[in-house]
UniProtKB/TrEMBL annotation:
Residues 35-48 have a biased composition (Low complexity). Residues 1-22 form the signal peptide. It comes from the Eukaryota. Residues 35-60 are annotated as: Disordered. This is Uncharacterized protein. Keywords: Signal.
Amino acid sequence: MILRNETISALMLLVSLPLISGFAGLSTTRPLRISTPTTTTLHSTPTPDDIPSQSRLEGNRREPTIAEISIIDDMITKLLAAPSHELPRVVSKAIRVVSSPRFFLRIAERTDMATSDAEKDKLSELAGNLVSTLEAVVSTTEKVLDDTALDVENIVKAAAEPLSGEFLVPLLPERIASMREVMDQIESPRLDEGFLTTIDSWMNKSGQDGMDGMVVILQKVLQIYAGTVITRARNTGDAPSPAAVLFEELLNMDTDNWDFQLRNKIGEGEELLSSEALMAEIQRTIESVVLGLENGSMAQRVQAEYLRELITRVEAMPQE
């Protein structure tokens, strides 16, 4: 699946302005049902029952009312009369209306109803100008986003292919490594509840809009987050045990490679590394790190689920 880098800024705008549903109808992918902020998942795979047959956004499930069409017509008339240099200001103030698919459909309807070629040309030109104006407005919102949202954006951007700016899902190892490098540059105090809430909001919005690939990327961000903050919080001492060394390796690698690493490392070395020793190391971390977090916080839930998945993988290893 391929997603373009430009979708990030649009997504940030939609999340920061929750009343906007404008870009939702532009997706051609069937939407996934994503967990709510209280049940964020890192590893789950959607089942057919999780996939709704239509958009869950109320505004996309019904025809507009006469009053809504009147509002759209008034805005179209206002934009037709506005100088081109005024479009960004006008669009910014009415982005909830202007960014909706229904707005562009109404322009097309009015173009068909126009009685003169001059009017048709003006409406067609307006539609083209609005597309570029919306892109510019969305881009400028980056300047007013808080540091938390920008941190998330930078990590997600690192998942894009450098030359094309596209997202290739599943992500290539190089892109995951780039995401981890960006995460490593973020100071621990900034990897807080606001950081996780932003990711969860993006996931929820992406799921509603059918952006399946973006959901996968954001799940990967959560996995990298969990490995990073747990690594920083652990105290392995000056002479870590073989189990502690392996655990650190697992925390700092892609979760898709866990099974391979476990098969290669369990039972290896002069001091045979057992799955029991690794499980004990994980358990100590749960007790000293995860249980010490604020009870019920997103940080605690995300890190606990991450380690629970690792425990499941270790338990699935064949016993010698």
